[in-house]
Design a protein that fits this description.
The strands form three sheets. A seven-stranded mixed β-sheet has the order 1-2-3-4-5-6-7. A six-stranded mixed β-sheet has the order 8-9-10-11-14-15, with no helix packed on it. The chain has a single domain, classed as 4-Layer Sandwich (Metallo-beta-lactamase, Chain A). A hairpin with a 5-residue loop joins strand 3 and strand 4. The chain is α/β, with parallel strands linked by helices. The chain has eleven helices and 15 strands. The radius of gyration is 18 Å and the shape is globular. InterPro entries: Metallo-B-lactamas (IPR001279), NDM-1-like (IPR050855), RibonucZ/Hydroxyglut_hydro (IPR036866), ST1585_MBL-fold (IPR037482).
C-alpha cells in the first residue's frame, strides 16, 4: 500500500490520510511479537489504518496494544473505532486522558466549540472505549512489545496535560507526539504547537529537555515522520517556542485583540518557514497542523494565567 513506509527495526509509518490529505498525521506500527500501534489518527482515518495493518499481516485478533501520545483528536480520535476493529488490543494512554477515552462526551463538546462544522470533515467522532480495556500510565510506564523489547513512556506535558513521549528500547526511536512541535518533511520546517487550554512554556521546555536526556537515536513525529538530527531538532523546537511566546507577548502587551495578535505573529514569523513561501497546498497543510490562530490563542491563554 502506498501509505506505508518501512523505517527499519520492524517499525512502519502509516499515513492516516487525515481529512483526505497526505503527510498530515502518521500512525506507527511496531511489528514485534506483540504488535503495537502508536497513534490511531482520526476516527475517519480508522478504516485506512485498519487496512494498512492488515496488509502488514496484523489481523483483527493480532494487535496487542494501541498507545496514544495524547488524546487530541488528530492522534486519538480513532481509538474507539480501532478498539472495536482489534478486540484483543489494550488501549494505553496517560492517566489524565483515560476517562475521556471511556467517555468522550466532554472532549467532543469542547472540540465542537473550537471547530464547529469542520469537526466532522477534519476529525469525525471519537467513540467510547470500554474502561476495562484502558491502561492508564503515570509519570513513567512500560509497554511490552515482546522478546524483551519495551516501549517506555515518559510524561511530557506543556502541549497537553495528558501527553507522553514513548521510547523504544529496541531502536532508540522516540515518539514525540506534539511535544516537540510539528515537522514538515518536504521543507524541513519545524513550528511549535501551543494550543489552548494546556500550553505552558516552562513545562513545554522541560519536556523537550527530558526528550534530549533520554538520548534517542531518532525522533518520530506524529506530524510528520522520522528525523535523525535529534539534538539539533530539539534545540530548534525550544527556540521556536521561545520566539512564538516572545512575539505573542509583545502583541498582547500592545493591547491588540486576538485577530490582530495572530496577524502580527504570523507576519513576523513567516520568513522562518520555507513552507509558507512554497506552493499553497504545502502552506495550507502547515497551517492546518500548527495554525497560527491556535498557537497564539494558546500562548495568550497561558500569559493571562501566569501574569494577568
Amino acid at each position: 500500500m502506498d501509505n506505508i513506509t518501512a523505517l527499519g527495526g520492524d517499525v512502519y509509518e502509516i499515513d492516516t490520510r487525515m481529512a483526505g490529505y497526505s503527510g498530515i498525521t502518521a500512525g506507527y506500527l511496531i511489528l514485534g511479537d506483540r504488535p503495537c500501534l502508536v497513534e490511531t489518527g482520526t476516527s475517519t482515518s480508522a478504516p485506512i489504518v485498519r487496512d494498512a495493518l492488515a496488509s502488514l499481516g496484523v489481523g483483527p485478533q493480532d494487535l496487542a496494544t494501541v498507545v496514544v501520545t495524547h488524546i487530541h483528536l488528530d492522534h486519538a480520535g480513532g481509538v474507539g473505532d480501532i478498539a472495536s476493529f482489534f478486540p484483543n488490543a489494550q488501549i494505553v494512554v496517560h492517566e489524565k486522558g483515560a476517562r475521556h477515552l471511556a467517555d468522550p462526551s466532554r472532549l467532543m463538546a469542547s472540540a465542537r466549540m473550537v471547530w464547529g462544522d469542520r469537526l466532522d470533515t477534519l476529525f469525525g467522532e471519537l467513540s467510547p472505549t470500554e474502561a476495562e480495556r484502558i491502561v492508564a500510565l503515570g509519570d513513567t510506564g512500560a509497554i511490552d512489545l515482546g522478546n524483551g523489547r519495551t516501549l517506555n513512556s515518559h510524561y511530557s506535558p506543556g502541549h497537553a496535560k495528558h501527553h507522553v513521549g514513548l521510547i523504544d528500547s529496541g531502536t532508540g526511536d522516540l515518539y514525540v507526539g506534539d511535544a516537540a512541535g510539528v515537522y514538515l518533511p518536504q521543507t524541513g520546517d519545524l513550528r511549535p504547537a501551543t494550543p489552548p487550554p494546556d500550553f505552558d512554556l516552562r513545562t513545554a521546555l522541560d519536556s523537550i529537555a527530558l526528550f534530549g536526556a533520554l538520548g534517542p537515536q531518532r525522533l518520530l513525529f506524529s506530524h510528520y515522520g522520522p528525523v535523525d538530527a535529534v539534538q539539533e531538532t530539539l534545540e530548534r523546537s525550544a527556540e521556536e517556542l521561545r520566539i512564538w511566546v516572545d512575539l505573542t507577548r509583545q502583541a498582547h502587551a500592545e493591547g491588540v485583540d486576538l485577530d490582530h495578535a495572530v496577524a502580527m505573529v504570523r507576519e513576523r514569523t513567516k520568513e522562518r518557514y520555507t513552507a509558507l513561501k512554497s506552493d499553497d497546498e504545502t502552506a495550507e497543510q502547515f497551517e492546518l497542523l500548527s495554525g497560527a490562530a491556535s498557537n497564539v490563542a494558546g500562548i495568550i491563554h497561558w500569559l493571562d494565567r501566569v501574569s494577568p
